[in-house]
Amino acid sequence: MFRRRALDFATNRLAGEAWDHPADGSRRWEAPAQQPTGTRFSPAVVLTAAIGLAAIALGEAVTEAVDPRAGISVHAVLLTALIVQACRVTEERLFRLLVALCLAPLIRILSLSMPLGEVSVVYWYLIIAGPLLAGALAVARTLRLSRSDLGLRLSNLPLQVGVSMAGFLFGIAEYLILRPTPLIESFSLREALLPAVVLLVGTGFVEEFIFRGIMQSATRDTLGRWNLIYVSAIFAVLHLGYHSALDVAFVFAVGWLFAVVVRRTGSLVGVTVSHGITNITLFLVAPFLVGPGLV
Fold first, then answer.
1. CB–CB of 287/172 below 8 Å?
2. Helices (DSSP H) in 181-244: which residue ranges?
3. What is the model's pTM?
4. How far are the Cα atoms of 12, 47, 171, 207, 275 from residue 203, in angstroms, in the given order?
5. Helix residue spans in the chain (DSSP H)
6. Digit-coded pLDDT (tens) for 1-26
7. CA 268 to chain centre
8. Count of domains in the chain?
9. How far apart, in whole angstroms, are the C-alpha atoms of residue 151 and residue 264?
10. How far from 28 is each of 20, 32, 164, CA to CA, in Å?
11. Are the C-beta atoms of residues 123 and 198 closer than 8 Å to each other?
12. Which residue, 13, 100, 223, 295, shows the most beta carbons closer than 10 Å to its own?
């Protein structure tokens, strides 16, 4: 359904190309005038972005304050509404916003509905990452995002290394905010290696691919430079489950920094590694090396 709509937009662009007709009857093609991008937003775009963010926040609040099943219902209604509206709109930039937003409720629906009760928590990330990555790839294909659009390349190596290493500091800082229970029983390479790989791939790559890859690229022309703040806000809202306003603010700040790095370098490499290291430090390292000193 989305794919057909995307093809419709491509057809409309071709149909809208300008041709002039000289006196000799021949036709000469002229490129159509490009639509202005930047900070001029249509009311429909502003309203859709605001309602989308508010609905995601509502779903998270219901999940935590009422019941996870009720939260799934809210996110399911939102996902359905986004899909239906995306199939009805005629403005391409609004279509791209609606399709990209589908990934936010999908994240929560998958994380809450999959039967993982008997599975170790550390492997939840990997199990959920499979269908989530499949959905993300479907969205990227629907929006016709190239590898370059998605940040799947390496550039500005010094900056990539710097932001990657900053993950250790981010992980310690977030541990001081949340003080989570470690995901492993003892601090050893043998016990931590596989969970570390799971966190690097399941949270580092998949989440950065979704937020700084797909969402940031899809909303660039829709929201202009405000898309960095908007996508970072969605990323932060999805952390309401940790029950810490300070952590939500911290995640927003880190998400915005990651967004700036990706916009500057056009690469997800550094932020992917940094995100993975942040969670590795938070759940596997800091509880053993930092935690005992805080008791």
1. no
2. 189-199, 206-208, 216-218, 220-223, 227-237
3. 0.86
4. 38, 30, 13, 5, 7
5. 2-15, 43-65, 68-86, 92-101, 103-113, 121-142, 157-178, 189-199, 206-208, 216-218, 220-223, 227-237, 245-265, 269-280, 286-289, 291-294
6. 555 455 455 444 433 333 344 444 44
7. 12
8. 1
9. 11
10. 6, 12, 51
11. yes
12. 100
Tokens of 237: 């809202």
> By the 8 A CB rule, do 21 and 159 touch?
no
Which structural domain range is residue 141 located in? 2-31+39-294
Q: Which residue has the higher pLDDT, 219 or 21?
A: 219
Residue 273 pLDDT > 90: yes
Coil vs helix vs strand at 17 = coil
Residues in the chain: 295
Sign of torsion over alpha carbons 153, 124, 82, 134: positive
Neighbours of 128 (CB within 10 A): 20
pLDDT class of 267 with cuts at 50, 70, 90: very high
Residue 90 main-chain phi, psi, to 5 deg: -115, -10
Q: Average model confidence (pLDDT) for the chain? A: 88
